[in-house]
Specification:
This protein has 510 residues and is an alpha/beta fold. Helices cover 36% and strands 13% of the residues. The protein has 16 helices and 17 strands. An 8-stranded parallel beta barrel has the order 1-2-3-4-5-8-11-14, surrounded by 4 helices. Strand 2, helix 6 and strand 3 form a beta-alpha-beta unit. The longest helix has 20 residues. The radius of gyration is 25 Å and the shape is globular. The N terminus is likely disordered.
Length: 510
């Protein structure tokens, strides 16, 4: 967080009269003091906690004062996606990170080159297991031990591995087998760490999409989807017992995609807006990030786990997109990420969790030029492959005060094409069957793909899954999160309808 050192060291006696005098000076010049603190990004409450207020101010005005603020904040992290063919060498990435206030670094896998490059930097490293490894981890203790032996022991403690995420967004993958085996897999990884005396040093968890919530608005009504609740209780029991975090991926950007009013954009970008009042608590929320995080807190509280730490594993805003996408722009990306960082540094917290900042991993460090889907998917990077900033959000140690737009920019798309949710090329029949079962199990009308239905032919898993996945997406909130299906689906502007089989569509403004 922030550290303070006062020089020179002075030993003196403070008389009662001096205290009284200095107190009166403090009251008279309070605004000047706070202006001084603000210019240096110092929390006045932090300084006052160090010394009694009168003496602190007396020192401030009477003696040379050096305030060294740590250029790093432990609550700011970044994601390192690797679906790209133009990433800088790991050594260059490590050097870049050391020039910033980023103190935590999340990998989706366990790339040994980048883990090794971060050795002796002090940067906390989060690594992950693949979703496909979950069945083996759950059933075979030796698999978990070998995984730790391969991906942790050669690097730790020089490389500061702090967390292992078992899988990514498993609960909303639609794969019931993975969902059921997630907790046993986490337990096996924890046991493997315990066996090498690292159980207290490296935590084990998993990452969830906001789709695990059935309700999130207003924040006080946040609840988990009942179909996940029993499994969630088991996972949260593990988090609670091991003091590991509950990791979630809130994206105000996707919320804006579902509600493109200007006032919603301002609310999402931490910009001037009228706020939104939670009718239950009467709390006025001034930004979407706080509202989403508090909805997660309410969901945890509703099933008895309010003390489990929340970590934001992903959040971000794209700086460009396709012509039919609304919301991506450099101005909006700079406003969201820059204002979010400033909000975290303020240590205000959220209305339901005041006075602290949740660990937040920005998405992402670089663009991923090989990612499928709309252009925005390839445009979340804070830095370019040549290590220059895509835009300045105040992460550099040399300059942490970027100018962020005070009013929202609401670029209109040049066209509003219809969009459909379709399977990605190469998706396996097993995954598509899981998607089909998941979508039709959520109450959508799957009768068109039943015998005699307009979309029954061709009678293939791929065809039936495509129809069900799209219908699920169209009948939910049309959030891209609902066209993910464990990364086996994408949005398309090509109409997949055929003959008498009509696929419902949604406009690009949704």
């Amino acid at each position: 967080m922030r550290s303070f050192s006062f020089t020179p060291k002075v030993v003196f006696t403070v008389l009662p009269s001096t205290l009284a005098y200095s107190s009166s000076i403090f009251v008279a010049h309070r605004s000047a003091f706070f202006k001084y603190a603000k210019q240096r990004d110092i929390s006045s409450s932090s300084v006052m906690a160090v010394l009694p207020s009168a003496v602190a101010f007396l020192l401030l005005v009477s003696f040379p004062l050096t305030v060294n603020i740590a250029n790093s904040q432990s609550f700011i992290g970044v994601n390192y996606g690797q679906v790209a063919d133009n990433l800088p060498p790991p050594s260059a990435t490590a050097k870049l990170l050391q020039s910033t206030s980023i103190q935590k670094f999340r990998l989706y896998g366990s790339d040994p080159a980048i883990i090794k490059a971060l050795a002796n930097t002090g940067i906390g490293i989060v690594i992950g297991t693949a979703n496909g490894d979950i069945p083996a981890l759950a059933s075979d203790p030796s698999f978990a031990k070998n995984w730790i032996s391969t991906n942790v022991l050669p690097f730790y403690p020089a490389s500061k591995i702090i967390l292992i995420n078992v899988g990514n967004e498993v609960m909303t993958s639609g794969d019931q087998n993975l969902m059921n085996k997630l907790l046993p897999a986490m337990q096996k990884v924890q046991n493997a760490l315990n066996d090498v005396s690292l159980g207290g040093e490296i935590k084990v968890s998993t990452v969830h999409s906001m789709g695990v919530l059935k309700q999130s608005e207003p924040p006080s009504s946040g609840r988990f989807d009942p179909s996940y609740e029993d499994l969630m209780k088991g996972l949260l029991g593990f988090n609670n017992a091991t003091a590991s975090p509950f990791a979630i991926n809130p994206y105000p950007y996707f919320a804006y995609r579902s509600d493109t009013r200007p006032e919603t954009l301002a609310f999402c970008l931490f910009q001037q807006n009228a706020g939104r009042v939670d009718g239950n608590t009467k709390i006025k929320y001034m930004n979407m990030f706080d509202a989403q995080v508090d909805a997660v807190f309410s969901a945890l509280n509703s099933i008895g786990f309010k003390n489990v730490e929340i970590v934001v594993a992903e959040t971000g805003w794209p700086y460009k997109g396709d012509d039919n996408e609304i919301g991506p722009s450099i101005e909006n990306a700079k406003a969201y990420n820059g204002n979010l960082i400033a909000h975290l540094r303020s240590m205000e917290g959220t209305p339901l969790m005041p006075g602290k900042s949740v660990d937040t991993y920005l998405f992402g460090l670089y663009d991923e030029d090989l990612k499928p889907g709309p252009g925005s998917e390839r445009s979340f990077g804070l830095f370019k492959p040549d290590l220059t900033m895509a835009y300045n959000v105040g992460l550099s140690k040399s300059s942490q005060t970027p100018a962020t737009p005070k009013t929202p920019t609401n670029p209109s798309p040049t066209s509003k094409k219809a969009t459909w949710c379709v399977p990605k090329s190469g998706a396996s029949d097993a995954q598509l069957q899981a998607n089909l079962d998941y979508a039709c199990g959520r109450g959508i009308d799957c009768s068109p793909i039943e015998p005699g239905g307009a979309c029954f032919e061709p009678n293939t898993i791929a065809s039936h899954a495509a129809y069900a996945m799209n219908l699920f997406y169209q009948t939910s909130d049309k959030s891209p999160l609902n066209c993910d299906f464990s990364q086996s689906a994408t949005l398309s502007s090509n109409n997949p309808s055929y003959n008498a089989c009509t696929y419902p569509s949604g406009s690009g403004s949704n």
